[in-house]
Amino acid sequence: SHIPNYQDETYLNTRLLRWQPETIINLPTGIGIIPFKIPGSPELMAANVECLRRHSIVIWAKHGVMVRSDVSVERAVDLIDYAETAAKYEVLNLTTGETGEGLSAEELNAICKTSNIKQTIF
Predict the structure, then answer these.
(1) What is the DSSP code string of 5-42?
(2) Which residues of the chain have pLDDT under 70?
(3) Residues 6+ apart with CB under 8 A from 1
(4) Which phi-psi region, left, alpha or beta, contains residue 69 (left: φ > 0; alpha: ψ -120 to 50)?
(5) Which of 37, 38, 81, 88 has its Cα between 20 and 30 A from that of 99?
(6) Is 62 helix (H, G, I), strand (E, B) or coil?
(7) What is the DSSP secondary structure assignment for residue 120, as one 8-state letter?
(8) How many alpha carbons lie under 13 Å from residue 121 in its C-beta half-sphere?
(9) Would you call 50 helix, strand, or coil by DSSP?
């Protein structure tokens, strides 16, 4: 969350959700991002509540993440694991000169159609 391009939700999600089929299935609304706000501030709290209404995971730029699940605490931890794995693959791709292409938008849409997943990213 320290790289400016990745502080844009559209950019972040199209880059991260392309690495594994299960990521779009488990994070169909993508990952939200809140620009830097002072930790513990009323501004961060308000932005976090609003962003969590649209996303299960929210990145606080230059700080950390917040996650929610209507299922269980274990499910919330799983969602973080999916996001971290996607970020790891993106970092690996960046360090190798961006040689990987990941799944295409067409492939991701086909996965979502087959799995009856309503996503808002691709």
Answers:
(1) GGGSHHHHHHHHTTS-HHHHHH-TT-EEEE----TT-H
(2) none
(3) 7, 33, 59, 60, 61, 62, 63
(4) beta
(5) 81
(6) coil
(7) S
(8) 33
(9) helix
Q: Are 39 and 13 in contact (CB under 8 A)?
A: no
Cα 38 off chain centre by: 22
| Positive or negative torsion for Cα 4, 8, 10, 12 | positive
Taking only the tens place, the pLDDT of each residue in 20-32 is: 999 999 999 999 9
Q: Determine how β-strand 64-67 pairs with β-strand 57-60.
A: antiparallel
pTM: 0.91
The whole-angstrom separation of Cα 120 and Cα 80 is 19
Nearest Cα neighbor of 86 from 11, 21, 33, 3 is 21
Q: How far apart are alpha carbons 6 and 4 in whole angstroms?
A: 5
Q: How many other CB atoms are there within 10 angstroms of residue 40's CB atom?
A: 8
Q: What Cα–Cα distance (Å) separates residue 99 from each residue in 6, 41, 47, 93?
A: 18, 40, 35, 6
- What does DSSP assign to residue 52? H
The SS3 assignment for 97 reads coil
